[in-house]
C-alpha cells in the first residue's frame, strides 16, 4: 500500500512532461492523482484502525491472564495457610497455565503495539506527503492555467498583426479613401453644375429687366 502511494507520488512528478506532450489536461490528471492518493490513505487509515483494535484486544487478554496469575498466587497462599495442600497445588497449576498464556499474549501484544506504532508513523508520513503534493498540485494547476491563458493571448495577438489581417486592413483603408474621393468629386461636380445654372438664371433675369426698361422708356417718350 505504501509502495503504491509512493508510486502515485512519483508519477505526479515524473510523468507531468509526458502528460503535457500527449496534450492531456494536466489539471484533470493532477486531480485524479490526488484522488488516488486520498483513496490509498483511507485504506491505510482503515488498516491502522484495525491494528490498534487488535493491539487493545491483546492487551486486554494479557491483563486478564496476568490478573488470574496474581489471583491464583494469593489463593495458593491462602490454601497453604488453611493447611489444604491439594487446593494449593491446583491453584498453582492453574497459575502456571495462565502464566504461559500471559507470556504468549504479552509477546503478541508487544508485536501488535510495535506494528500499530509503525503504521501510525507511516500514516503520518503519508498525510505529510499528501499535504505537500496538494500544495504542489495547486501550484501546478495555477501554472497550467497561466500557461493556457498566455498561449491563448499570444495566439490572439499574433492573429491581429499577421499578413492577412494587415492586407485586409489596408484594403479597407483604400476603400475608405476611394469613398472620400468619390464624395469630393461629386461635390465638385454639383458645385460646377449649380454655378452654370445660376449664370443662365441671372442672364434671364437681366434680359427681363432690360426689356421692361425699354418698354417703360417708350411709353414715356424718353427713347
Sketch the major β-sheet. Answer: none
CATH first level of the largest domain:
Mainly Alpha
Q: Approximately what portion of the residues adopt beta-strand conformation?
A: under 5%
DSSP helix fraction: over 70%
Secondary structure category: mainly alpha
> What is the first-to-last residue Cα distance?
136 Å
Family: Belongs to the PspA/Vipp/IM30 family.
Protein name: PspA/IM30 family protein
Pfam family, one: PspA_IM30
At a glance:
With 223 residues, the chain is mostly helical.
Task: Tell me what you see in this structure.
The chain is mainly α. It has 2 domains: 2-160, Orthogonal Bundle (Helix Hairpins), CATH 1.10.287; 163-223. The chain is 93% helix and 0% strand. It has 5 helices and no strands. It has helices at 2-14, 16-21, 26-81, 85-160, 163-219. Helix 1 (2-14) packs antiparallel against helix 3 (26-81) and helix 3 runs antiparallel to helix 4. The radius of gyration is 54 Å and the shape is rod-shaped.
Keywords:
about 220 residues; Helix Hairpins; mainly alpha; rod-shaped; about 95% helix; 5 helices
Amino acid at each position: 500500500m505504501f509502495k503504491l502511494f509512493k508510486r502515485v507520488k512519483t508519477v505526479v512528478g515524473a510523468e507531468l512532461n509526458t502528460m503535457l506532450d500527449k496534450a492531456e489536461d494536466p489539471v484533470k490528471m493532477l486531480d485524479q492523482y490526488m484522488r488516488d492518493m486520498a483513496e490509498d490513505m483511507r485504506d491505510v487509515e482503515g488498516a491502522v484502525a484495525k491494528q490498534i483494535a487488535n493491539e487493545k484486544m491483546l492487551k486486554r487478554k494479557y491483563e486478564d491472564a496476568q490478573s488470574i496469575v496474581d489471583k491464583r498466587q494469593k489463593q495458593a497462599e491462602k490454601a497453604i495457610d488453611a493447611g489444604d495442600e491439594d487446593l494449593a497445588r491446583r491453584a498453582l497449576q492453574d497459575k502456571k497455565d495462565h502464566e504461559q498464556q500471559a507470556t504468549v499474549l504479552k509477546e503478541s501484544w508487544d508485536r501488535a503495539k510495535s506494528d500499530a506504532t509503525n503504521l501510525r508513523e507511516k500514516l503520518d508520513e503519508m498525510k505529510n506527503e499528501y499535504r505537500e503534493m496538494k500544495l504542489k498540485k495547486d501550484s501546478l494547476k495555477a501554472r497550467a492555467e497561466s500557461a493556457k491563458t498566455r498561449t491563448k493571448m499570444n495566439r490572439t495577438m499574433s492573429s491581429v498583426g499577421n499578413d492577412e489581417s494587415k492586407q485586409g486592413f489596408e484594403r479597407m483603408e483604400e476603400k475608405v479613401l476611394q469613398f472620400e474621393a468619390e464624395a469630393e468629386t461629386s461635390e465638385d461636380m454639383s458645385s460646377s453644375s449649380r454655378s452654370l445654372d445660376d449664370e443662365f438664371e441671372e442672364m434671364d433675369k437681366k434680359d427681363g429687366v432690360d426689356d421692361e426698361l425699354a418698354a417703360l422708356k417708350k411709353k414715356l417718350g424718353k427713347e
